[in-house]
Design brief:
heterodimer, A: mainly alpha, 59% helix, B: 521 residues, Cholesterol Oxidase, domain 2
């Protein structure tokens, strides 16, 4: 009983603290500009976009991968989710960037965008293995959205041995006979007795 | 009969995104949602001579739009662009959104509802409005109309054959599946919309049937609220959306009808009732079931290529009944590049290296049968401040315990089928060769954010039954207990999950109930 009460308090206090910090934008050092958007942003704030580019640069390290393009792909995907989720996602990126919770929990003083590639990897791995659920699920959301944006582009498919059939829908199947007596008869035969 | 290719441009189909002014439409019956429940209800009622209007939030896409590219299909054909998840991020939710609903993107697996499930509803959830046998003619009719037929062993792809062979070797029950396809070319792209119209989805069957019988359909119209007074719905208020369904156009739709049928599926139907102030004393949105699912990857020497051929063609119900423990059933799932990339753990170089094994990797899943135990009460649907649904599904200890057991059985069958190695999908995966490492699976981090869980089946939230204290709609005709011209016809009326893929259960029940409704007009 005492254990569950203590863990509730810990979780509750921590949850409140990180959300407050994620929203304030307090920082010991200013963020770095890591990659300018190449088009309009739909769901992401410009500051969030910078953090996401820094994340994408480590999630996908395949030669030729463009973290700015990946971040735009994620921004596009976020246009489909409810407004509350868009707000949360911006907050999540603020939390990752913000050095104050980083200082308290990870002894890190630099914003995420100012970290070396190796340090970014350590922070991401730390979130993925964190004892705090909000960090684990936040990491998974970032990881999956970046990977889906990258691997939905045909240019990424060669190393996978993935090759979809060529364009079948341009006329190989003719549905103009659908509904005609011959078509219905063929269907009835295929249906069996 | 109308040609499939010309229906979208026929006078009976209205593109909500192209309306320059707000609209008011009238019909005998207004049906909200065009998936398994809505389409079958629409066709049955239109054929009985009623004037029917179908209202759909999604877009009207056809085979010519189905490019077999995740980038084109997943954002357009799935709820929230396939990024929908439960409140704490613990369960990823795959649910369709288009004219034809989830039937446009499902993997064609067709099961009649198991008899013991219907008997359980009768005993435990006061579902007395129909006997199991009453559904037989409806199931038979759906099998005929949708060309539902059993797959042969030889027609299975390697992804499914490994599941089948592994089960056989272990002496576990397994069978090939029934699929709703006609002249299937085995492209493997059911998930992204059938590019050759072989899948007998609602898009190419019951929607055309309804239109042929005089029904009208408006798409890109999001149902906001049912206006009701004195136990009767007066009208539906809906918002018209742009061509991609992202932004309101500024125009609205009002529908006046004698009857309203809500068929938005197990997440959107409860949300619409809640937005309309119809919460049935707190019952609406509760007992939402997801068939929560965990997976296991198996690497073989030979190529598996799960993206080729019918995505699902085998299933095992060997572990469906486990007494006090939650049961589950086993199936195979296809992957495409983005789907595989999100399933493979980690990031950076190690992730990229695992991706190069993808063509040799089979993916098998264990699908949890929720709703049959007191401490597996399912989840809830409530409303976000914007009015969008919020799904909360706590994963209880009994579920985690079932997932641990299921993970071991998946590894066991994959190794029995000749896999070189097996890998769980945890963020810190357990890899196994030769034999199942039960201790390592037990010691894995079974927690949200470390062990991925997903759902492709949504059920419950507006349960049917004969006791208004425990159900939202009557089981004799799926009519709302207190609002006399309102029905709910979709997967949300199931009082538990089904233990099988849901589409045919919805078709059969919708046909039975629509036939009764047509007779009572």
């Amino acid at each position: 009983m005492i254990g569950s009460r203590r863990s509730f308090l810990k979780k509750g206090l921590f949850g409140g603290l990180v959300l407050a910090l994620g929203g304030t934008g307090l920082a010991l050092y200013p963020s770095a500009q890591v990659g300018a958007p190449t088009g309009p942003l739909f769901a992401l704030q410009p500051a969030s976009f910078q953090v996401l580019v820094a994340v994408a640069s480590r999630i996908v390290t395949v030669a030729g991968a463009d973290p700015v393009a990946i971040a735009h792909g994620v921004d596009e995907a976020l246009t489909r989710v409810p407004p509350e989720v868009q707000v949360d996602f911006n907050k999540l990126l603020g939390l990752l960037e913000n050095a104050l919770p980083g200082l308290l929990l990870d002894a890190r003083v630099q914003p995420f965008t100012r970290l070396s590639p190796e340090s970014r990897d350590r922070v991401l791995q730390g979130w993925g293995a964190s004892r705090f659920e909000i960090r684990r699920t936040g990491y998974q959301a970032l990881r999956k959205l970046c990977l889906a944006a990258y691997y939905s582009e045909a240019s990424s498919w060669a190393p996978l041995g993935y090759e979809p059939p060529s364009n079948l829908n341009a006329g190989a199947y003719d549905d103009s006979k659908a509904g005609t007596p011959e078509w219905l008869e063929a269907q009835a035969k295929a249906d069996g007795p | 009969m109308t040609k499939l290719a010309t229906i979208r441009s026929s006078a009976s189909v209205i593109d909500g995104s192209k309306q320059a002014a707000s609209l008011t439409l009238e019909a005998d019956v207004c049906i909200i949602g065009t998936g398994a429940g809505g389409a079958w209800t629409a066709a049955t009622l239109a054929q009985a001579g009623l004037s029917v209007l179908l209202v759909e939030e999604g877009g009207y896409y056809t085979h010519a739009d189905f490019t077999m590219r995740e980038k084109d299909s997943e954002p357009r054909l799935f709820q929230e662009g396939m990024a929908r998840a439960t409140k704490d991020g613990g369960i990823a939710i795959m649910q369709g959104k288009a004219v034809g609903g989830t039937t446009v993107v499902n993997w064609t697996t067709s099961f009649r509802t198991p008899e013991d499930v219907v008997e359980h509803w009768k005993k435990r959830h006061a579902v007395g409005g129909f006997q199991y046998a009453f559904l037989f003619p409806d199931y038979a009719a759906t099998e005929k109309r949708l060309s539902i037929a059993k797959v042969s062993y030889g027609a299975m792809n390697a992804n499914n054959r490994t599941l089948y062979d592994g089960c056989t070797k272990l002496g576990w029950q397994v069978d090939t599946l029934k699929r709703n396809v006609y002249a299937c070319l085995q492209t493997g792209f059911c998930h992204l919309g059938c590019p050759v119209n072989a899948k007998r989805s609602m898009l190419v069957t019951l929607i055309p049937d309804a239109i042929d019988a005089g029904a009208k359909l408006i798409f890109r119209a999001r149902a906001d609220r049912l206006e009701h007074e004195g136990g009767e719905v007066k009208m539906l208020h809906a918002t018209l959306l742009d061509g991609e369904g992202r932004t309101p156009t500024g125009q609205s739709l009002t529908v006046k009808a004698k009857r309203f049928v809500v068929s938005g599926g197990a997440i959107n139907s409860p949300a619409l009732l809640l937005r309309s102030g119809l919460d049935s004393g707190g019952l609406v949105g509760r007992r939402t079931f997801l068939h929560p699912t965990v997976g296991s990857a198996a690497i073989y020497d030979e190529k598996v290529e799960p993206f080729r051929g019918a995505p699902q063609s085998a299933a095992s119900h060997h572990f469906a009944h486990r007494g006090d423990d939650m049961g589950f059933f086993l199936e195979a799932v296809p992957w495409y590049p983005a789907l595989a990339a999100t399933a493979v753990p980690g990031f950076g170089a190690s992730h990229a290296e695992n991706m190069t094994l993808a063509a040799h990797t089979a993916l098998h899943i264990a699908i949890g049968i929720d709703g049959f135990h007191d401490d597996v009460p399912g989840g809830t649907v409530t409303l976000r401040p914007s009015g969008a649904p919020l799904i909360d599904y706590p994963i209880t200890p009994r579920l985690w315990s079932a997932f641990r057991f299921a993970q071991k059985r998946l590894a066991e069958l994959q190794l029995a089928s000749g896999a070189k190695s097996v890998m769980t999908l945890h963020e810190q995966p357990i890899s196994m060769t030769g034999k199942v490492d039960e201790a390592a699976i037990d010691a894995a981090r079974w927690e949200i954010g470390s062990a991925p869980v997903f759902t492709a089946h949504q059920m419950g939230g507006c349960p049917m039954g004969d006791d208004p204290k425990t159900s939202v709609v009557r089981s004799e005709d799926l009519r709302h207990h207190t609002v006399k011209n309102l029905h709910v016809v979709d997967g949300s009326v199931f009082p538990t999950s089904l233990g099988v893929n849901p589409q045919q259960s919805i078709y059969g029940l919708a046909r039975l109930m629509a036939t009764r409704l047509a007779a009572a007009k």
